[in-house]
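Here is the promised in-class demo. Please do not try to memorize the tokens; focus on the logic of going from shape to residues.
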């Protein structure tokens, strides 16, 4: 009787255990098979990214970035809305993904053993290798052994930190590894080298070259590593989402879009390309007559309008920038459409100038609180280059920190440059996030200098 009871209990235990295993397996299977269904049910693809020179940024009031545009295309393919969450570090992005706060990390994340163990990589991008970022000069390093005794800034728990530690072991542990704040991006550290705030950091060669296109003093020739894989991240259990992304990746139209966007964000400089225009003898430009015709409607000296055109397109009416700005006055597509231009008329010099003047009128209205006309012109030039959003952010910062929000040089200009610093672009008064303000600051200075030069002409 005792043996019979024991057998019954054992049988019940086995059946109960099998039932639990089956339920757990069914639960896991349900989670795996329904990962994409749950996203579809929510009608939204939740994406994490970071502000950066190629990932996500606001330019002339339009969101841009390789990762932003590719994620937008993926969401359209899946017939989903797109919801972006902007992180301050890669660790924060992966944590959000792990905690199911986002479905996808759309950022150029480097594949490490730990990440590959916890996540799946999708949309692989071009491999690159790590280099030392420094400034050019006779004291520039040319061999890793010369890093002995030097201070190199990297973020903790990053791929650059791991590589620097390995290098340190190779040369005898004499590199001073300085841990940068986790809120700083790799772009931020490269900028700090260009600005001579720090001497050295590590970066991927393709990213360093992009920065070098507008900070010519940077040196990124010294390799410190081998080619490494990278891409976007999803959770390992999101198998159906992965399958859908892999199908989307292989579509000819996706491959074409990816190629176009890679060229747009990685290969072309974000600054205007030098163009030559035939300028009649004694004239400022081939379009002096048109500048003289339309400048009075905004109460500008026509030579100032000509200076703006020169720094926008070098007087080339067929010019198209890396960001999609078109024509003599480099109007963004949305702005051109707003003022009545289409894909054909936007290249017409007179129609482009006329629409540009209408846009300047709207900017003049946006900054009407700046009573001094000469000061207001500086703000209009800055907004023409970057869009008014970032300029308004810089004005808000100036006001908060006791500077004059209606004065450009050394006041609002200073805070526009600070918009690539997380301590500032994460400030509550900032509404439009990260911005690399160097181009805009240089643009205002250069345009005014050209105008001053033009004033010496009749």
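The designed amino acids, position by position:
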């Amino acid at each position: 009787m005792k043996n019979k009871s024991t057998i019954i209990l054992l049988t019940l235990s086995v059946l109960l255990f099998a039932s639990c295993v089956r339920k757990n397996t069914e639960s896991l299977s349900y989670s795996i098979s329904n990962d994409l269904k749950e996203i579809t049910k929510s009608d939204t693809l939740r994406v994490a990214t970071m502000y950066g020179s190629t990932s996500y940024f606001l330019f002339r009031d339009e969101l841009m970035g390789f990762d932003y545009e590719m994620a937008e295309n993926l969401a359209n393919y899946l017939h989903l809305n797109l919801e972006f969450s902007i992180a301050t570090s890669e660790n924060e992005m992966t944590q959000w993904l792990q905690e199911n706060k986002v479905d996808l990390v759309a950022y150029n994340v480097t594949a490490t053993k730990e990440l590959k163990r916890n996540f799946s990589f999708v949309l692989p991008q071009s491999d690159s290798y790590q280099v030392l970022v420094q400034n050019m000069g006779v004291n520039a390093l040319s061999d890793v052994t010369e890093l002995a005794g030097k201070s190199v800034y990297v973020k903790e728990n990053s791929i650059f930190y791991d590589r620097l530690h390995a290098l340190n072991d190779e040369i005898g542990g004499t590199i001073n590894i300085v841990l940068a704040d986790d809120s700083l991006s790799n772009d931020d550290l490269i900028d700090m080298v260009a600005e001579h705030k720090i001497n050295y950091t590590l970066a991927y060669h393709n990213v360093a070259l992009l920065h070098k296109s507008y900070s010519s003093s940077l040196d990124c020739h010294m390799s410190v590593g081998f080619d490494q894989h990278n891409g976007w991240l999803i959770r390992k259990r999101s198998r159906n989402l992965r399958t859908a992304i892999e199908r989307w990746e292989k579509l000819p139209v996706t491959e074409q879009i990816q190629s176009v966007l890679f060229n747009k964000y990685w290969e072309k400089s974000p600054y205007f390309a030098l163009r030559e225009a035939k300028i009649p003898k004694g004239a400022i430009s081939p379009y002096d007559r048109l500048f003289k015709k339309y400048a009075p409607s905004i109460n500008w000296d026509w030579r100032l309008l000509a200076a703006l055109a020169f720094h926008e397109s070098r007087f080339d009416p067929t010019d198209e920038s890396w960001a999609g700005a078109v024509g003599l006055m480099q109007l963004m597509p949305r702005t051109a459409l707003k003022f009545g231009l289409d894909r054909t008329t936007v290249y017409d010099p007179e129609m482009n100038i006329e629409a540009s003047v209408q846009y300047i009128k709207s900017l003049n209205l946006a900054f009407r609180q700046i009573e001094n006309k000469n000061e207001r012109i500086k703000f209009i030039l800055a907004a023409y280059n970057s869009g008014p959003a970032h300029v308004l952010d810089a004005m808000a910062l100036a006001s908060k920190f006791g500077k004059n929000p209606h004065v450009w040089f050394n006041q609002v200009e200073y805070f526009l440059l600070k918009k690539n610093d997380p301590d500032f672009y994460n400030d509550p008064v900032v509404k439009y996030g990260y911005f690399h303000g160097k181009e805009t600051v240089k643009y205002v200075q250069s345009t005014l200098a050209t105008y001053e030069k033009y004033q010496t002409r009749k």
